[in-house]
Amino acid sequence: MKVLEDSFAFKVGDLDCLVIRDTVSPMDLDLLFPSIKGKEMEGLLDKYHVPRGKVMDVMCLLIRIGQQIVLIDTGWGVNKQPGWGRLIPILRNNGIKPERINTVVISHGHPDHIGGNADAKGKPLFPEARYFMFKKEWDFWTSLPDLKQIEKWVQQEMHAYVRNNLIPLRERFTLVEEKTEFLPGIKFIWAPGHSPYHCILNISSGAEQLLYSSDLIHHPLQIARPECSVFGDFNPEQARRTRAKIISQSSKTNMLVFACHFPFPGLGRINKNGDLLTWQPINTNS
Ligand SMILES: [Zn+2]
Fold first, then answer.
1. What is the spatial distance between Cα 103 and Cα 109, in angstroms, rounded to a whole number?
2. Is pLDDT at 2 greater than 80 in this prediction?
3. Which residues, other chains included, contact 7 with Cβ-Cβ below 8 Å and sequence gap of 6+?
4. Which of 46, 130, 195, 196 sits CB 3.0–4.6 Å from 108 for a disulfide?
């Protein structure tokens, strides 16, 4: 395994994978978990031995499948803030020009996952790529829905990203159903709550599997306490149920999980000790 400052290479079966740290941004836990107050949060972090930290990474995943180079999610894009949306420079540092990306897969239609699809004029940043997305998630966001449960300014921001990063690229998108192997070893699994048709991805090669958990989980505390919903969960109750179910399933199979907002590189397994589930990051030095 190889750790560079902003990327991390690992293997899943025969697949060469690369984590790309698109954005490192400060994030107070009070903002992330608005329903958990300061002292209560301190108590939870102590109780479950969750490290403190005020950053929220946004990471993308690159996978080589034979001749194909597949990118999963595209981060914030370059227009947000200085230091955000570093996907393309990091790809170049790893010797990968944007034109070499054949395929882009989008887990859900939120700005920090679609922002790097296109430049400010809606021109694709991966000119040779075809794009894949779960059909229902595409239909939902591209209808520019009026989201009463979300603050107005957040909705406007979400719609602006959809107008720039999804709609102009319609002809490049193949819209697929869940549980269909749309690329060798890769399927969407519908995991609703954070967004109505939010998907995680199951990636397999030989006997090995990787769960791309997308925004099912944002913070290691949610492994022990899946009922803790975050700012931005569209339907918090549904998000809780989905999270609890998938975390429990993943602990039983001991599969490798990539959590794109966890501390870099976001790879680990879910340990079960009695009734307690905890996040066990992989050892990046081995
Ligand atoms: Zn996200």
1. 17
2. no
3. 18, 19, 20, 21, 90, 93, 94
4. 195
Indicate yes or no: pTM above 0.85. yes
Mean pLDDT of the chain: 93
241 CA to middle of ligand 1, Å?
A: 18
CA of 63 to the centre of ligand 1 (A): 19
Q: What tokens were used for 63?
A: 């996978």
Domains annotated on the chain, with CATH: 2-281 (3.60.15.10)
Give the residue with greater pLDDT, 92 vs 81. 92
Å from CA of 105 to ligand 1 middle = 14
Contact yes or no for 8/265 (Cβ under 8 A): yes
Tokens of 88: 């393309």
Other Cβ atoms closer than 10 A to 167: 15
Residue 149 sits at φ, ψ, to 5 deg, of -80, 0
Nearest of 14, 266, 64 to residue 183 by alpha carbon: 64
pLDDT exceeds 70 at position 107: yes
Asked whether residue 177 carries a pLDDT value surpassing 70, the answer given is yes
Ligand 1 center to residue 197 CA distance, Å?
14
* Contact by Cβ (8 Å): 229, 215: no
Contact 242, 217 (CB under 8 A): no
> Contact 197/108 with Cβ under 8 angstroms?
yes
